């Protein structure tokens, strides 16, 4: 792992645990063993570190999605929606630290003042919602999903799944314990009532 990657990894952990505002460059320096000057050699400021983490997170989500959906075949769009739900739950479980960072309020406070941060957050969520939308469109073509606005429906389904992930992230409820009910609820929302 390069010094830059080590800084990003450590910063991601600190931002996840303490938040963006409460993480100091001195603390990051202490944890990485890199002098603050070395950190500033790689990154202009703390915001740039945060933005780099978001950029890396989006790239990782896209890579994971390409791998996950490239290894599976779905007979229907409805099955692909179920696969998208499973994928998101898997992703959140395998990247808990990054999802904690993504679910912290201070990321959105920064996004309010920093258009680049907002752009990164929107890009992350758009790439996730796009997966659900593609599955819904496929299901509408094959008849497994009813006629409904695909993007809005994808946002609703994604919000349900992300809400359960947030419960899990904050140790309020085990996401796995709601898996069957979540799938059944999504099937009812998406079912083609015309067939």
Task: List the SSEs and their pairings.
Layout: H1 3-18, H2 25-32, H3 36-42, H4 46-70, H5 77-94, H6 96-103, H7 105-113, H8 115-142, H9 150-169, H10 179-190
Helix pairs in contact: 1-2, 1-4, 1-6, 4-8, 5-8, 5-9, 7-8, 8-9
- Ends: how far apart? 54 Å
- Number of continuous helical runs: 10
User: Number of folding domains?
Assistant: 1
- Residue stretches low in confidence (pLDDT < 50, at least 5 long) are none
The structural class is mainly alpha
Q: What's the pLDDT, averaged over the residues? A: 92
- CA radius of gyration is 19 Å
Biggest sheet architecture? none
Q: How helix-rich are the residues, as a percent range?
A: over 70%
Number of strands: 0
Q: Roughly what fraction of the amino acids lie in strands?
A: under 5%
Which word captures the global form?
A: elongated
Name the CATH architecture.
Answer: Orthogonal Bundle
Helix and strand pattern: HHHHHHHHHH
Task: Summarize, please.
It contains ten helices and no strands. The chain is mainly α and 195 residues long. The chain has a single domain, classed as Tetracycline Repressor, domain 2.
Structural account:
This protein has a single domain, classed as Tetracycline Repressor, domain 2, CATH 1.10.357.10. The chain is 77% helix and 0% strand. α1 crosses α4 (46-70), α4 packs parallel to α8 (115-142) and α5 (77-94) runs antiparallel to α8 (115-142). With 195 residues, it is an all-alpha fold. The chain is elongated. It has helices spanning 3-18, 25-32, 36-42, 46-70, 77-94, 96-103, 105-113, 115-142, 150-169, 179-190.
